[in-house]
Amino acid sequence: MATAVRNTDCLHARSSDALLICEHCDTVYRRRPLARGEVARCVRCGAELDRHRALSVNALLALILTAMIVFVQANIWPIFTLGLNGQFSATTLWGMIVTMWEQGAQVVAVLAAGTLFFFPMTKMMVMGWLLWFARMGRRAPGFAPLMVALHRIGPWTMSEVFVLGALVAIVKAHTYFEVVADPGIYAYGALTLLITIFAGVDMRQLWEQTPEPKP
Amino acid sequence: MSALPRAVDLGLIGCRMCGLVCRNVAGNAKLDGDGVGDAMACPRCGSTLRRRKTNSYARTWALLIAGFILYIPANVLPIMRTASLNDVDDNTIISGVVELWTNGSVDLAIIVFLASIVVPMLKFLSLGMLLVSSQRGSDWARPQRARLYRLVEFIGYWSMLDVFVVALLTALVRFNVLSRVEPLPGVIFFGLTVVLTMLASMSFDPRLIWDGRNTDD
């Protein structure tokens, strides 16, 4: 548990870096280093304040690069194939988006394109860009706006929901068709695993880990 | 509780985007985004600093009500049509759950039921309750309400499940006259409901739960 700040005397000059405000209830805490596996929770509302950063910038960059490779695989391979009386039908993510557009559900096509392709892709590319420079001990060009963009995109990536959706679709189709799982679904499974790992990473740590540029 | 100081009382503001703790140099002026002259930018990331999210109550109510209105056609109208040689069958969200259940996939039926029916209902009821109780400045069950908000925020996007199922089946079941799946308007309303309720839960400021009677609005 982080200790609460009890008076205002300590708030001079740069010491504001050492403070932490709970985003869920506005309680002010003094930051303290956390040991491996430790998570600081707000005493008032129970929200997570901070957690130990087990992954270094290098490890994060490696994860992002892996996720990018898997993401490409997940997008170029068909997800699964249906068979009926010797006819076969397979689709990729983009095949699905285009079909929805053509079938009059443009809203769904746009939602799927955003949450399953554009937002995850932007997120990974921005994270890769920022981490690549952070590794060299610098802030990437466009650091501040990109960090803000990353924060905004955060909740709009839904690859893990899509994986569960694919499972439900397979089970539904299984009653009437022959179902063959294709590489795409495995790539999506791996992608979900990777996303789960870096979902717990707070990229905001880069604000503290990289030096502020001299004005 | 009084031993835990809040940023408002200390004249501090935490940047919503980058987390930097800033001194509220505008003094006691309301940095709620309603006054033009109040705007102060975060020195680190440049985002506008606000003590609370802008017009949180009004925005959350508007988005929540809009989401609820769209949730009605999402459930009443069919979300997809399965057509084969001898019959045409229109499925609603609930008939999809029933179909999974009767075909023996009880576990998946429960997951789809949770994602498509329970989660949206939970969002409407919880956010509505959080809005009413916070607007009244109620101090009832504050830690539990805070936890409920975090739950709503965390599970919200799983409701997209059914939309993706319909999209995948539409793209895959294309065997000309033998068997086809087409999306129907219900799925569009449902997708929009999910987006609107996500926006609603993002607009709600959980700090309002703790603000008590004599603050904003």
- Runs of chain A in which pLDDT lies below 50 for 5 or more consecutive residues are 1-15
CA radius of gyration of chain B is 22 Å
Q: How many discrete structural domains of chain B? A: 2
| Series of H and E elements of chain B | HEEEEHEEHHHHEEH
From the spread of the alpha carbons, the general shape of chain B counts as elongated
InterPro entries (chain A): PqiA-like
Pfam families (chain A): PqiA
Keywords (chain A): Membrane, Transmembrane, Transmembrane helix
Transmembrane segments (chain A): 59-84, 104-132, 153-173, 185-201
Question: In words, what does this structure look like?
Answer:
The complex is a heterodimer of chains A (215) and B (217). Chain A has 215 residues and is of the alpha+beta class. Chain A is built from seven helices and seven strands; from the N terminus they run ββββαββααααβαα. Chain A has helices at 57-76, 93-102, 106-135, 143-153, 159-174, 183-199, 205-209, and strands at 19-21, 28-30, 39-41, 48-51, 80-84, 87-91, 178-181. In chain A, α1 (57-76) packs antiparallel against α3. Residues 1-15 of chain A have low confidence and may be disordered. By secondary structure, chain B is α+β, with helices and mostly antiparallel strands. In chain B, 51% of the residues lie in helices and 12% in strands. In chain B, the strands form three sheets. In chain B, strands 6-5-8-7 form a four-stranded antiparallel beta sheet. A two-stranded antiparallel ribbon of chain B has the order 1-2. A two-stranded antiparallel sheet of chain B has the order 3-4. In chain B, α2 (56-76) runs antiparallel to α4. Chain B is elongated and about 70 Å long. At the A-B interface, β1, β5, β6, α2 and α3 of A face α1, β1, β2, α3 and α4 of B.
